[in-house]
Specification:
The protein is mainly β and 184 residues long. The protein has a single domain, classed as Lipid/polyisoprenoid-binding, YceI-like (Lipocalin). It is 10% helix and 51% strand. The chain has 2 helices and 11 strands. It has helices at residues 2-13, 78-83, and strands at residues 20-23, 29-36, 39-45, 48-53, 63-69, 73-74, 97-109, 112-121, 124-137, 140-150, 170-181. The protein has an 8-stranded antiparallel β-barrel. The longest helix is centred in the N-terminal third of the chain and has 12 residues, at 2-13.
Length: 184
Amino acid sequence: MRRLAVLLASALSMPAVAAQWQVDHEASRLGFVATQGGAEFDGRFGDWQASMRFDPDNLGESRFDVEIDVTSVNTDSADRDNIIGDPEWFGFEEFPRARFETTGFEQVGDNQYLATGDLSIRSVTREIELPFTWVIEGDNAEMDGEVVLDRTHYNVGTGDWASADMVGHEVRVVVDLSLDRVAD
């Protein structure tokens, strides 16, 4: 009996693991908005994977780990999509992947959070803060977030493209995810 009590006390003192969520890729978007020649254009990534554990009541055990195949970019312009893979831009041959890994979360309002994490693009890693909303309905969740990055901080658009004259420096990353809770 004493052994059962010790095991029960140990189990109760262990932190609960945050719920795991699976992205519904058909209903989700991971993309960006940038400017070229003063006009905005949208882009999105077709191939990316996300390991997501999130619990509003257990932010300390929550984690996002997102890996993006940047070669899967689509901006609805064949010319732009071909140039984006050049060494001056994403450099697909040398840097085919980008990654975002969280290091912490903070609740900033009702269903509003701030994820702090490391974003790596072209072997440049910088800490960013991603504000987002997370709404749970039963076993489904919706996550919406945006963060503005300076592309030059990641060496994206170098050489003749370093100036903001033709392509703006600011890029708005857009996260719009539909998720399903994974059964334990």
